[in-house]
Fold this protein.
Amino acid sequence: MTSPLYASVDLGGTKIAAAIASPDGQIVCEKTIPTHSHEGPQAVLDRIAGLINELAAKAGSRPAALGMGMPGWVDLAGGISKFMPNLLGQWRDIPVREILGPKIGCPVYLLNDVRMATLAELVYGHGKDRPGLTMVFFAIGTGIGGGVAVEGKLRLGAFGSAGELGHLTVIPDGPWCSCGNRGCLETLASGPAITAAGVRVMLLGHAPKLHDLTAGDLSRVNPRLMAEAASQGDRAIREVIQDAAGYLGISVSQVIGTLHPDRVILGGGVAEIGDLLFDTVRQTVKERFHMFPPDDVLILPSLLGVRAGILGGVALAAANGLVK
Ligand SMILES: [Zn+2]
């Protein structure tokens, strides 16, 4: 008997990634298409159904279930989209499971996209062969998302929203955050926050290497080029990255004090800064956390990188969702 295949969708503000895979995470076929979220939920869900049916035909097998990551708050038990701040119309109370299920002929399970990436790390990445792992995942990109796994199990909370690590306060009365609070980690260490600080330093004339790397074009500044400029000798840019990583280190310290996890995983595009980011976070934890030795908490990059989202959907589908 052949093992069943599962479908996965990672719905983003600009693109939809989909795949058909076996339960051990081997991708059979995959495709990415633009979201065109301005067309509204019905049109987007129609296109997702078309995409899954196309992949199922290619795989020669109908998936046993679909796991779908969504960029916001979802009703897990009901399969209903509740609030997607970055999709047009915010997808309030859209019965995604009810609409999509009949079109693709299998059950549909929903989860927040970063919780889904955390599930992927748990099943196929850092948690693989480590049953009972307690792990915290920071996804640092345009925003900062997160996920928490306690003793081998994803912590969801009543709304599936546990793990909003980007909205821990690190500076009281700091910059306004899109969530309505001030001084959240996201306002200080996300990609746009780091980029904005880099642009400022470049405008002040303190970033000659970054100026060269971007040919003086401010719109080309990003955290990856800033890390490159820092390694080439731009001290002020190095300090900008270290400041952001220091704030991240403060949040990591708080999480260590709360959970004493085995591992803290830093993923998302900003984690590609590499050593300068990771070393500063580790150093900050050493300097700030004293209640027990935090040396056994490993602070590491994601093992799955950009594949985490899509693999999380496979894990979610293979588990028949996480809410029974
Ligand atoms: Zn916030």
Summary: The radius of gyration is 20 Å. The chain has a mean pLDDT of 95.
